[in-house]
Amino acid sequence: MDEREPMLRTEGLSKHFGGLAAVREVALACRVEELHAVIGPNGAGKTTLINLLSGDLAPTAGRILVAGKDVTGLPAHRISRLGVGRSYQKTNIFLPFTGFENCRLSAQSRLQPSMRFFAPAHAHAPTRAAAERALAMAGLEGRAGVVAAALSHGEQRQLEIAMTLATAPRLLLLDEPLAGMGAEESARIVELLKRLRAEHAILLVEHDMDAVFAVADTLTVMVDGAVLATGSPDAIRANRAVQEAYLGSNEADIVSK
Amino acid sequence: MSAAAPGRRAPVAGVAVLLVCLAALLLMPLGVDKFYVQLVTKMMIMAVFAMSLDLLIGFTGLVSFGHAAYFGVAGYVLAYAAPQYQAASLWVSLPLAMAVSGLLALVIGLFVLRTSGVYFIMVTLAFAQMLYFVFHDTKLAGGTDGVYIYVRPDAALGEWAGGWKPFDLENFVHLYYVVLVLLVLTWIFLRRVIDSPFGRVIAGIKVNEPRMRSLGYATFRYKLASFVIAGTLAGMAGYFAAAQFGFVNPDMLGWHLSGSAIMMVILGGMGTLGGAALGAFMMMLLELLFQGLTKHWQLLMGGSIVGVALLLPHGLLGTVAAWWGRRVAAKDSERTDG
Known about the structure:
The structure holds two protein chains of two kinds. Chain A is of the alpha/beta class. Chain A has nine helices and eleven strands. In chain A, strands 7-8-9-4-10-11 form a six-stranded mixed beta sheet, with helices on both faces. In chain A, strands 1, 2, 3, 5 and 6 form a five-stranded antiparallel beta sheet that branches. In chain A, strand 10 and strand 11 (about 225-230) form a beta hairpin. The longest helix of chain A has 17 residues, at about 240-255. The two termini of chain A are about 30 Å apart. By secondary structure, chain B is an all-alpha fold. Chain B has a domain at about 35-255. Chain B has helices at about 10-30, 35-60, 70-80, 90-110, 120-135, 170-195, 195-215, 220-245, 255-270, 275-295, 295-310, 315-335; strands at about 145-150, 245-250. In chain B, strands 1-2 form a two-stranded antiparallel ribbon. The chains are: A alpha/beta, B mainly alpha.
C-alpha cells in the first residue's frame, strides 16, 4: 500500500435530496498514477458523487480531502483552483465560442492574478499554448477555429475533455467522457487516459465496460448510492455480489471472457 | 476569432464608417447652430451612458433596470460640490462624482448580483427607485423640484500650473469637444476591457456561468467588477449631463431614464458597444423628429421600438455585424472550396 496521502480521499460522503439518499457513506481514494473507475447501474449516484467532489453540490455529511486538504463544502471555483478538473456527462461548453477560445478561456483560469483588464487576452502566449496543447491532446487540433456549436456531437465531447485538461489539473473527475463518441474517438480518448495516468489521479465514471476494464487500476462499484465493492478489475470480475447486483450474468460473461 | 466579438477582424469597412462618423463629429460645430451643437453634446453624453450599460447587458449578460441611479447620483454630487453661484473645480468634482457612483454600484452590486434573470431586473429597479424616492421625498437637494447648478465646473488647474485653464465649459463648443473626447476615450477603454482577459471572463459568464465556476472563476467578483465599471462610467455621463443642463432633479435617477437606456442598447444592438452609442443617437433623433410631428410622439416612439425589435432582433449595428459575419464566412468557405 502506498504511504503517500492520496490525491483524493473521501470519508463517509453522503448526499440526501429530501428523503432520497443519492450518495451514502462513500469512502474512496485515488492516487496519482491511478485510474479509479466508478461503475454502477443508472441512478447509482455516480454523477452525484462527482458533483460532490467538484463542489457543484455540497455534501450532507462526510468529508472530502484533496491532497490532504479538507475541501468539504468549498465552492466549485475554489476546488477547481486546487487542481481539480472535471468534465460533464452532458456537454457543458461555450457554444458561441470557437474550440480554441473554449480552451483558452479554460487555461486563462490559472492566471495569477486572474483579473486583468487591459492587455488583450489573445496576446497572452502561455494561455494560447496551453489551449493548443489541450486541443491536440483531445484530438481537436484541426478544429480549433470552428465555433463549438458547429462541432459534431463527438467533437463537442472531445472539447469537453480538452477544456478540463486546459486547466492543468492534478486530479481529473471525468463523467462518462466516452458517451456519444464514435469508436475511433473512444479509442483515442482511452489512449489519452492511459497517458494522463502517468501524471494525474483520475476518477472515471463510465458505462463502456470494455474501456473501463482496459484502463482502470481500481474499480468501485456503486449501487443505490452506496459502495458495493472496491478492488482491482480482476477482483471485481470475480466478485459474486457485483455479478449478481450489477453486471448480470450475461454481461459478467462478456467482461470475464 | 470568437463569435462573442462579431466582425472583430472584419471591418475595414467598419473602421472607415467609424472614421467618417468621427470626422463628422469633429467638424460639426464649425457648420451648424448652437442648438444643434448642444443637441449633439447631449446625444454624446447619452451615448457614453448607453455604452456603460452595454457592458452589463451586452457583454456580461446582466440586464440592469436601475442604471440611471449611477447617472443621477453623479449629477447630485456635482450639485452638492458646487458652491452656490460659483463653479466647482472640474478636477475635484468629476473624480468625486465618478467615485461616488462607483461606490454606489459596489454596494448595490453586492446585493443585486446574488440574484439573476428576472429577479435581477426587479432588484436593480427596486434599488434605483429607493434612491429616487430618497431624493424625491426628502429636502436633501430640493426634493421634487431639484436644484440648479448656476455655474458649470471650472477646468482651471491649480497654482502649480499658474491657474491655467485648458478649456472653458461655459463655452458650448468647448463643452462639445470635451464630451466628444470622453466619448472616444470611453469607447477605447471599454473596447480594451472587452478584449482583455477580464472581458473574456464576463463573456463566458454571459454564456455559461456554472461552467465558468467549475473552471475556477469566482464569477461573483467578475460580475461585481463589471457592475462597478459600468456604474462609474454612467456617473461620468451623469456628471456632464448635469453640467450641461445646469439642473438636477429626481428624474435623473428614475426608472424612465433606466428604461430609455435599455432601449438605446437594444435599438443599436446589444454587445456591439458602438451599437449602444448609435442607439442613443437614434433614440434622441427619433424623439426630436416625432415631437415635431405630433404631441402623441411617444406612440410613434414606442411603435418604432417595437418595429426594430421585431424586424431587427439584433438591433441596428448587431444586424449589420451579423450580416457582415455571414458574408466573411461565405467568402472563407469559397476560398477553401476553390
